[in-house]
Amino acid sequence: MNAVASAGEPIFPEIRAGNLGLRLAAGPADTDAIQALRYRVFYTEMGAKADPETAASQRDKDIYDAVADHLMVVDHELGDGPDSVIGTYRLIRRDAAAKLGQFYSADEYDLGPVIRFPGHILELGRSCVASEYRGRSTMQLLWSGIAAYVFHHQIELMFGCASLPGTDTDVLGEELTYLYYNHLAPPELRPRALPHRYIEMRRVDPDSYDPRRVLAKLPPLIKGYLRLGGFVGDGAVVDPQFNTTDVAVVVKTDLVTARYFRHYERQARDPAA
């Protein structure tokens, strides 16, 4: 997908934080560097299972990459080559998914309530950051880029699959139970895991744990969605290839807290702010 405005200019300029910069991928070389980073994080570090083609190419790629926009964080101290790409997020809008007939998350969830939403929607996915850069500044850059993209394209609903590490849903019982009882999406926005992949999220007695303790041990990405007013769908899905347990996440952009909304709106309108 073309990541520039109709006049040929980027939809937002590079956002800088010290030596780190964030922008949209601009061509095949950027996409290849992003896929190489995703392979290092998902397969080399986190234990995803590579098929022979993926192992040979050392790239994490699929058919959705060609229609998506890709946010990328670059460490300028590492130069301008592919090794400078240290973070990424994949963004798929409704018209992009239509080219392939479905969103990526449709392999795990019935997205009917999301698809029926009348406004502009955006699927978020394939987020990863190189291990030595997993700090506040990198995630702030990625969220700033998402915010600028959301304002430019007038996105009203964001969604996607977020992952918990591991595939033992009993080990993850507290986290899944907490998410179900505290952050379940309203019915009109609630994805549901496909019947053949559905795993019950209510796995332990909700009175048997301290909710604050469980919230604290959730993956940072899921906590980030929740801070933005996010909800989860009904049912978890085990992804054996990526060694994760997934939950569907839905975020209405008008539920973003006032502090985030004002900050990102100002940044989208005035990148120098």
Describe the structure.
The structure is a single chain. Strands 1, 2, 3, 4, 6, 7, 9, 10 and 11 form a nine-stranded mixed β-sheet that branches. Strands 5-8 form a two-stranded antiparallel ribbon. It is globular and about 50 Å long. Helix 5 crosses helix 9 (258-269). The chain has nine helices and eleven strands. It has one domain: Aminopeptidase (3-Layer(aba) Sandwich). Mean pLDDT is 90; it is low at 1-8. With 273 residues, it is α+β, with helices and mostly antiparallel strands. The protein has helices at 28-45, 52-57, 94-98, 112-115, 136-153, 173-183, 211-216, 220-227, 258-269, and strands at residues 15-17, 20-24, 69-75, 85-93, 109-110, 120-129, 155-165, 192-193, 231-232, 237-239, 244-252. The longest helix has 18 residues, at 28-45.
Key features of this structure:
about 270 residues; alpha+beta; Aminopeptidase; 9 helices; disordered N terminus
Write the topology of this structure.
Blueprint: E1 15-17, E2 20-24, H1 28-45, H2 52-57, E3 69-75, E4 85-93, H3 94-98, E5 109-110, H4 112-115, E6 120-129, H5 136-153, E7 155-165, H6 173-183, E8 192-193, H7 211-216, H8 220-227, E9 231-232, E10 237-239, E11 244-252, H9 258-269
